[in-house]
Predict the structure.
Amino acid sequence: MSIQSTAEKAELLRSLHIPGDPLIVTNVWDSITARIVAGADGVKALATASHSISEAHGVEDGEGLDVDEALAAARLIIRSVDLPVSVDFEKAYASDAAGTRDNVWRLIEAGAAGLNLEDSIGRSKAELYDIDTQVSKIAAARAAGDRAGVPIVINARVDALAGDPSLWDDAMNRANAYLDAGADVAFVLGLSTEETVERALAAIRGKVSVIANPSQVPLARLAELGVSRVSFGPTVMGLTLSHLRDAATTLTARGDYPSELGFAF
């Protein structure tokens, strides 16, 4: 994939983040899920989920894959579709700005139009990089894109509330600091109610991305509130696997053939 093509896809991906008309990304984890989602009506971009990719490779989430394995998984998905792909790049497989810059450069070479970059240190979200370190990593990711001539879309994840719901001020400070450092969108975990979404949108000086599920704010309401992007993370794999489990149960019991057995792909 040429750098020019990747740059065009990054520009397209950025343009799809519209407050009030959010980009909805149904997360994928391999070639076939990418192709199926890309072929669905209305889909304009894809995003991977690191948890799902890790499960598919038999390792734990939280950089259970090394950077070479993560890049290989990303390349497989990117080359399977024509749409822009945002890659859940965890912590950039680096603890400092220099390593982040080098690894994001490699991700851009693989054809990624965007990436998630999270600020928690371990698999738990209780321990976070200090703000200055994370700001330097986000700035390094932006510098890698500038060097490549690719305006890669940085979806900067803020994990503070997911680790401790009382850390509201810290979460909002982090979101704004990350945007100031060059992130395009603040991806704030832990916004599970309409009230918290509204408060975050009022406090954050830029576009906001959230993760959603059936127990939280409906998609139509998230759009009305002014969210710019909605994703679902590994729950999409859960949706897929629940259907597979139910079908296996029915078939094992010699029940009716599930109609989905006729699905053409």
